[in-house]
Design a protein that fits this description.
By secondary structure, the chain is mainly beta. It has one domain (about 1-35, about 70-265): L,D-transpeptidase catalytic domain-like, CATH 2.40.440.10. The protein has helices spanning about 35-40, 195-205; strands at about 15, 25, 70-75, 80-85, 90-95, 115, 125-130, 140-145, 155-160, 165, 180, 190-195, 215, 245, 250, 265. The strands form five sheets. A six-stranded mixed beta sheet has the order 5-4-3-13-6-16, covered by helices on one side. A four-stranded mixed beta sheet has the order 7-8-9-12, with helices on one face. Strands 1-2 form a two-stranded antiparallel sheet. It is globular and about 50 Å long.
């Protein structure tokens, strides 16, 4: 397999724990579908729980969010990483992620290609600061992308880890009592799952931008010096205006220099 061997287990209900450290009663309730099936089936649902006084706040917005000028996001399905960077300010952060399961061809079902966040709307569809429906999103941010599934619905995005355990090995518990953790493996139905602190930083770092370019590649991301970008690395960023080689997606100009190239397309 292109991404290494992987045995797919049932994603519904309670899973036998395999990460981390064989914890009991890992909950992973995401239903089958392309991206988030709930969004395709409930396009007008109140996913932010607006107007509900008893909705818990499961995270606080940090006061040290990076100030960016021209943010870009690059997802490598090979290394299962999300790279947020800004050529102008020099900011760079590499986060672990759990992308889509492997298909019959040995590649992740998360679509590789060039996409973007937004455009922002008044109904909270693309930038969801606290997503509560379904409840396994835990009230954490949901950053939606312009990736249509096979039926044309925009159901893909970045969100929290989904997986959690409950105190005492219980089979269910309230969102604020859950012990959330990320399984950095091919585990989702197309979205990029992230650690709680990572999706919070990513979301709020780009929240005020109408759209941010997002590239998703099957291959390995290389920095400007040709080194592999992975967790713990310090990537050398390309200069503003320079092209990037996006593995199997080919070379592409700086999206901020060529706005017309922001049109979403698969590789």
């Amino acid at each position: 397999m292109k991404h290494g061997s992987y045995v797919l287990v049932a994603l519904l209900g309670v899973l036998a724990a395999c990460d981390p450290a064989d914890e009991p009663n890992v909950i992973d309730p995401e239903p089958a579908g392309e991206g988030v099936a709930f969004d395709e089936q409930n396009p007008n649902a109140d996913i932010e729980g607006l107007g509900k006084a008893d909705t818990p706040h499961t995270y606080d917005v940090p006061d040290d969010i990076p100030e960016l000028e021209r943010p870009e996001i690059l997802v490598s399905l090979e290394t299962r990483t999300v790279h947020l960077f800004d050529r102008e300010t020099g900011f760079s952060a590499v986060y672990p992620t759990g992308p889509g399961v492997l298909g019959s061809d040995g590649t992740s079902i998360t679509p590789s290609g060039f996409y973007k966040t937004g455009p922002d709307t008044d109904d909270g569809w693309y930038y969801v600061a606290r997503r509560y429906a379904p409840d396994y999103f835990g009230g954490f941010p949901f950053l939606r992308l312009t990736i249509p599934n096979s039926k044309g619905y925009h159901t893909y995005g970045f969100h929290g880890p989904i997986t959690y355990t409950c105190p005492g090995g219980a089979s269910s518990c309230d969102a604020e009592d859950r012990d959330w953790f990320l399984r950095q493996d091919y585990v989702s139905h197309g979205c990029m799952r992230m650690e709680v602190e990572d999706i919070v930083e990513l979301f709020w770092a780009v929240r005020d931008f109408e759209s941010v370019p997002v590239a998703i590649i099957d291959g390995t991301e290389l920095d400007a010096d040709g080194n592999v970008v992975d967790l713990g690395s310090t990537p050398t960023l390309p200069k503003p205006g320079e092209s990037i080689n996006y593995a199997e997606c080919g070379s592409r100009p700086d999206p901020y220099e060529t706005p017309s190239r922001w049109t979403s397309r698969r590789c």
